[in-house]
Amino acid sequence: MPALPPRGRIRFAVFKGDQNFEVGQSIHEWQVVDGAYQLTGVTETTGLAALFKPVRVSYESRGQLLAAGLVPEHFVSRKNGNETGDRAEFDWPGGSIALGKEGRRQNLPAGAQDFISFYYQFGLLPALGNSVELTVATGRKLETLRFMRVGEENLALAFGTVPTLHYRAAGESTTEVWLATERSLLPVKIRHIDKKGEVFDQVATELRADGEVPARE
């Protein structure tokens, strides 16, 4: 069976810019029951950023955990409690996906993930090579991300030094992820660089998971 812990929670501090100004926190939580998973991510501003512009953004992914890993069936995004219009309904038997509030239908590629599940799919792949290609449904479109392996790095986190594998997918925007090799390849740092070059880092400050499995060689 894929090596995703049956239940877990990761808390991240969110930083903006090269000066690492802390602007918020993000909490990822998941559980797997009888082969069905639910994964949520909630990001909200904190401190001074919350005083000037309080924002709470949430993502929810639901689906099945099978031999091939996560198989999303439903994804939705909300901002301050209201749906943003970023949603995806995966019709695997029919081979199609409905995107956005209009439900625009497209062909559904094998192995497609949603905007939060893909971070957790890395650890469920048969092997992690020098490149990993994932099709991601953002809720409005399908996008293919090709992650290149940057290398192995030790991250000094609040709960200790964590050995990681670092992957980067570059394009108009850049996404990077650091996977904890001794913690079921769970994401412990996420970086997004937008089209304007603005950097947003999510750095894990707490990681709790049941039944973790060491990474495969």
Globally, the shape reads globular
Terminal Cα span: 17 Å
Helix content: under 10%
Number of strands: 15
Order of helices and strands: EEEHEEEEEEHEEEEEE
Average pLDDT for all residues: 93
Fold and architecture overview:
Strand 12 and strand 13 form a beta hairpin. 5% of the residues lie in helices and 62% in strands. The chain has 217 residues and is mainly beta. Strands 8-7-6-5-4-3-2-1-15-14-13-12-11-10-9 form a 15-stranded mixed β-sheet. The mean pLDDT is 93.
List the SSEs and their pairings.
Elements: E1 7-16, E2 21-33, E3 36-45, H1 47-52, E4 56-66, E5 69-79, E6 82-91, E7 96-99, E8 104-107, E9 113-114, H2 118-121, E10 131-137, E11 142-157, E12 160-169, E13 174-180, E14 186-193, E15 199-209
Parallel strand pairs: 9-10
Antiparallel strand pairs: 1-2, 1-15, 2-3, 3-4, 4-5, 5-6, 6-7, 7-8, 10-11, 11-12, 12-13, 13-14, 14-15
Characteristic key phrases:
217 residues; 15-stranded mixed sheet; 15 strands; 2 helices; mainly beta
